[in-house]
Every structure is written in structure tokens, then in C-alpha cells.
Amino acid sequence: MVESSTVIGHQMALHRLSAAISKDQNSHAYLITGPDSVGKNCVANYIASALNCENTSQIPCGQCSQCNRISRGVHSDCETISVDVEGNLHGDGNKRTVITIDQVRKIIRESYLKPYEGKYRVYIIQQSERMSEEASNALLKTLEEPPEQVVIILISSVPEQILPTLVSRAQLISLKKVNWHELQKGLIQKFQLDNNVAEELSKTCDGKPGIAVKILNDEEYKKWRSDALDEVEFLAEASSYSRFIYGGSLSKRYLKDRDASIAILTLWQEWWRDVLISSYGIDDSIINQSRIKKISYYANRYGSPNCARNVRILTDTIEKLKKNFNPSLTFEQLMLSMPTLT
Ligand SMILES: [Zn+2]
């Protein structure tokens, strides 16, 4: 099992946070934004550890019992709130799709109690744009007069959907994708990876450390990704007739699992972007390094204009599917409009 206690990338943001917290200048509320898998939860845990760390010179130390318990997710003063934590069905037989007023009321009730074991109670609210209006308003009242020793960390990849008055009460930490050099360095430090393995992984995961960690931990994900790349290589070689037939199965797959299908199309789009980059001779920026031989083969055979066209067509297809265009027509169009080799 790979450990995931330290943050990869975002060093400037972490440095500023540590400096402020060590001078007791922490905020009572933070809003951490950024793309999925970029490290928002890791930064939230970093803040929770820095607030509670027993070390006086360097916080968070990552060694003391407070840091240790937070990284293991067993600290009694640090709680993560999310939609449907256990994926449970509720009384009405449905899974919750929002963070409810009851979840927020529990935070408010507890926040007036002293921390049990640490210096601060820390509440991390994941996907905080999913808070119901009632829940948001209740939380707002708490943030207007925050109890001492309570810090609330909102996490969201779509902060524009959070109640603006709530956003204005929080200190914004906006995380960007991590450049691959920094990612490679972080992966080597954290997982003791070999240089080359870390390089390929860092180029594969599009600036998102969470994806690298997932690939390292998750055999199923590795297989899923590898199958999707086999598929796009197959399609690059296929005749328009085979593609047309194939389009039908893609549409069926889409109807079964919309999100997974769009994720596969995004991976194809990324692969074609690699082929396009390779057609310009800039192999260094290629994401799918493990497929580089085929990528440069297709770059030569297709040429830059056709590669660019494929990237564009896939972008359009993803857009159309997200806007609920008819999937069978959309996949048919995709298969017929991509240039072929023959
Ligand atoms: Zn510590």
C-alpha cells in the first residue's frame, strides 16, 4: 500500500500557510479550489496538521502524534464531510446528492465544544458546492461569528456554484495543475520511485498528483487506462467501415455508463494531442510516454493537420454528449468524420 500523507506540488501555497499558522494568523475558513485530483484534500489535511502539530519549529512536522493521527484519518477533532459519506441509502431509499442542513447543524453544534485532543477542530467539507441552500445559510451564520479553535475548510472544483457570501468569508487557496518536473520530484520523494518511472507517470497524469497516486495504487485503473489506449490505437488503424460498426458499440457503452465513456473519450483526445505534439517533433511534452513508439508512428502517418482535426472532433464530441445530443448519432458522426489512413 502506498502512503499518501505528504502533498505533491503547491509548495508556495503550503509555505505561506505554514508561515501564517505558525504566527497564529490562520483564517477561520479556507476555500480550496482547483481541478479534480490536483491535491485539494491533501492541502486541507496539511492545514489541519499544521493547526494541530505539536512541533514548534517546523509545522506540520509529519512526525508527531497529532500529524500522524490526522494523516491516518483517526483524529477526533478533524472531520471530513461529504455527500453521502458511506454511499448509504437513506430513509426515502435514495442516495443523497447534497450536503444537508443536518450535516451542517452537527458541525455547528460540535464547534462550540472544546477540541478533544488537539488545538483546533477542523471540518473539511468536500464538494462544498453541493451544500443545500439551507445548509449554506446555516454555515454562513457560523462563519460570521466563528467560534475560537474552529477552522472550516471548503473544497470545490466549481467554486462559482457556492453561495457568494460564503466564498467572501473564506481565504481562497486556488490550486493549479502541478508542472511535470515538480510532480516527478514529488513522486520520487514520496514513493521512492525510479527516475524514469516517475518521469513517465508525471507526464501521464496531466499535472494532477491524485491521478499518479491512483495509478500507483489501483490495478483496475491501470488496466482501464491501458484498454482505452489500446482502443484508440486500434481505431487509428481501422478502416472507416470498421469504425462505423464500432461506433454502435461505443453508443451502447455510453448508455450504460455515461461518465466512464466521457472519461475514455477524454483519454483518446489526450492521446491524439500527444500524436499532434509528436508530429511537431516535441516528444518531451508527450503525456503517454509508455506509448511513444506508436504515437510517433501515427504522427508520421497522419501528419499535423489530421491530428489537429482529430483533437478538435473529439473535443466537439465530448461537448455534444455533455449537452445530451443523441449518442448514437454523435458516435456515428465521430467515427465518420475522423480521417483514416486508407
Ligand atoms: Zn506534527
The structural class is alpha/beta
- Give the distinct bound molecules: zinc ion
Poorly predicted ranges (pLDDT <50, ≥5 residues)? 1-5
Q: Based on DSSP secondary structure assignment, what is the total number of beta strands?
A: 5
List keywords for this structure.
342 residues; alpha/beta; Rossmann fold; Zinc Finger, Delta Prime, domain 3; 2 domains; 5 strands; 56% helix; disordered N terminus; binds zinc ion
Report on this model:
With 342 residues, the protein is an alpha/beta fold. It folds into two domains: 11-174, Rossmann fold (3-Layer(aba) Sandwich), CATH 3.40.50.300; 218-337, Zinc Finger, Delta Prime, domain 3, CATH 1.20.272. The protein is built from 14 helices and five strands. Helix 5 (133-144) links the parallel strand 3 and strand 4.
Describe the structure in brief.
With 342 residues, the protein is of the alpha/beta class.
Q: What is the topological layout?
A:
Elements: H1 11-22, E1 29-33, H2 40-52, H3 65-71, E2 78-81, H4 101-111, E3 121-125, H5 133-144, E4 150-156, H6 164-168, E5 171-174, H7 180-191, H8 195-204, H9 209-217, H10 219-237, H11 240-256, H12 258-279, H13 292-322, H14 327-337
The structure holds zinc ion.
Zinc ion (ZN) is lined by residues 53-55, 60-61, 63-64, 66-67.
